[in-house]
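quick one before i forget lol
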Amino acid sequence: MHRILTDSVRVFQTLFGCVMFAACVASAAAARVTVVLSSDAAPYQEVYQVMRAVLEDSGHDVTREYAGAVSARTLADARLAVVVGVGAADAVAAQPGRTPVLAVLVPRVWYQKTGQARLADNGRRTVSAIYLDQPFERQALLIRLAFPDARRVGVLLGNAQRGLIEDIEAGLRTQKLALSYSLVNEEQRLAMPLEAVLTEADVLLAVPDPQVLNASTAQSLLLTSYRYRDPVVGYSRSLTRAGALLSLHSSPSQIGRQAAVWVLNALSGPNVRLPAAAFPAYFSISINEQVARSLGFVVPPEDELEKRMGGEH
């Protein structure tokens, strides 16, 4: 009788342990993720919708907040927060708390200069990022594949971005490309430094820099490059439509997909573990065929370039 009771206790203990383990696993699997958007603009919403579809399909609870309304309480209720855009990142950085933060659709320069430190709050938060911009090695490969005869690449930078020069040169060297660049002061007109670069360069690489390329300057930069017969390699589909011969970019849905994978992996264990900040894993290429014909370039099709560059879609 004693042996039967002992065996029953052991069975009960085993079953109880299994139930508790299952409960813990379920608790770990079903986490709340708060996605904070800089605004209701379409790119931010697209990132959120892709993330929500993937994460909710895996059993997680996904909530959406906006930069103007986010609070410390909202963040405290989440196991992980995703901030979409610099506006959302700044809003979350201003709130106290220890919830880990993943920033997406943010420029690398911003994150490395100020964003990471502000979000980390003296080490109280674990933070990481998926950058908005593409690695220069990837851009150099695209230039080599699209323009095999190119030898020198031109870049125009504002003074605030001068720290990128070494990174750009290193990326271009991977494809035996040389750099010609000019720095633009805040009050300086673009015409002279742009023409100095175009005189030397075979290709103009556009770098995300609001001082150089914005709504007021984009048309002039593209037309001047066209006049010099230098193709422009851009960083967005809208730049391709505006007159860049081709662009390398990651869509909001591609960024959202990568962010969702990161979040799923981060939530898979008892502690949230985010990988180091990185460039987009998924990317696309867009070509302006009319500009290519006008400048006399025969460029491989978009899908062929993407395949040769190892793109994932």
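fyi The longest helix spans residues 2-29.
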